[in-house]
Amino acid sequence: MVLQRVSRPAPVTIQDALPHEVQLYCIVDASWKSPSEKIGIGWSLYSKEGTLRLQGSSAMDATGTPLVAEAVAMWEAVCQLHRLCYKNVTFVGDCLKLVQQLECSMEDKQHIEDYISEASSTIHDIKVVAMKNHYTFNHVPRIFINVVDSLAKNTRTNNQSYVISWPCYSATVNSNLLNEIERLTKKKRKTALAIGDGPNGAGMLQ
């Protein structure tokens, strides 16, 4: 009897690449150019349906390697969501080495030499915060982090200060504002019609 290996289909969306139980996921990325130049970090928090909840980005001090830059970006994302009291978040990125080291650290594996690196101290700090908040880490293909990758690159290029935004809240505010403007406009039109002094609205407000 010959057993055939059944390969899993390639993920089409980022949700396909994540565990089914994930309710919130945060995409994290860093932009690194050289050891002497500032890095850019970016992160975006999404609901499991793919709705953007909030995002952050900043230019930060230079790091010696891309791995350390990725670790700094992850640290910033973890810290910010901890400060905002988010629990049970899955953090994802395309840096396989970082995710593997985080997983090893979270699992307290005995062979610590397997994941000792220049980012070890930052990884330890991430672990401490992650354990308190039930955070987990997953690797995803680069194709799924393009938006955050661009966010990090633009931040580095523009030497941007730290910015955190709530796009979904802004969209709600803008929508409510537009609805209120429309309501007031209709009310004004009704008032103008009510005080008109002729069939052609000669007395209508201008």
Automatic annotation (TrEMBL):
One of its GO terms (molecular function) is RNA-DNA hybrid ribonuclease activity. Residues 28-154 form the RNase H type-1 domain. InterPro entries: RNaseH-like_sf (IPR012337), RNaseH_domain (IPR002156), RNaseH_sf (IPR036397). It comes from the Eukaryota. This is (rape) hypothetical protein. It comes from Brassica napus. The lineage of its organism: Eukaryota, Viridiplantae, Streptophyta, Embryophyta, Tracheophyta.
